[in-house]
Specification:
The protein is an alpha+beta fold. The chain has a single domain, classed as Peptide Deformylase (Alpha-Beta Complex). The chain is about 20% helix and about 30% strand. It contains 3 helices and 8 strands; from the N terminus they run αβββββββαβα. A 5-stranded antiparallel beta sheet has the order 1-2-3-6-7. A 3-stranded antiparallel beta sheet has the order 4-5-8. A hairpin with a 2-residue loop joins strand 4 and strand 5. The chain is globular. The termini are far apart. About 30% of the residues are buried.
């Protein structure tokens, strides 16, 4: 049975560490972590979550794009565990977009990211996968991939003027008071 894991927040040193490679995808603790991360990201209305965000320093994250209260326009995709992920290639075009983070509640920022990326990872069965992502899903992947290297989205902001509160973000989206 999957359990909801506590999400650590900015200031916890684990968020600033480089995560370790997963040596054995089939290890029961890794398989349980995948199930727990999937349950946790769904409950938190996230579109992705990385193992370091639940204080587990493994190169593993979930990309789970779907419309929810935090991201009402997110595209629908099957939640996917990505183990030891790598970016193989990226577009030259970078695009700024709004991001938030479950480990930095109450804050949104405009973050430049590559518009399109080619990536590879191991799926939860240990099978190598290669995919291309663009737009919002590419943004999620890059955001979660940063967590594996101890980087948070605020590190990528070009100007502090691009940082706003969640409440102001919701107003900008026409959903605030």
């Amino acid at each position: 049975m999957a359990e909801l894991l506590p999400i650590i927040e900015l200031g916890n040193p684990i968020l600033r560490q480089k995560a370790s490679f997963v040596e054995n995808v089939h290890n029961w603790s890794i398989q349980k972590l995948i199930d727990d991360l999937m349950a946790t990201v769904a409950k938190a209305n996230g579109v992705g979550i990385a193992a370091p965000q639940v204080a587990k320093s493994h190169r593993l994250f979930i990309v789970a794009s779907r419309p929810n209260p935090r991201y009402p326009n997110a595209p629908e995709m099957e939640p996917t565990a990505m183990i030891n992920p790598r970016i193989l290639a990226n577009s030259t075009e970078m695009v700024k977009g709004w991001e938030g983070c479950l480990s930095i509640p109450g804050i949104r920022a405009l973050v430049p990211r590559y518009e399109a990326i080619e990536i590879e990872y191991l799926d939860r069965n240990g099978k190598p996968q290669k995919q291309e992502f663009s737009d919002f899903v590419a943004r999620i992947f890059q955001h979660e991939h940063d967590h594996l290297d101890g980087i948070v989205f605020l590190d990528r902001v070009e100007s502090t003027l691009d940082i706003i509160t969640e409440q102001e973000y919701q107003k900008k989206q026409g959903r605030g008071e």
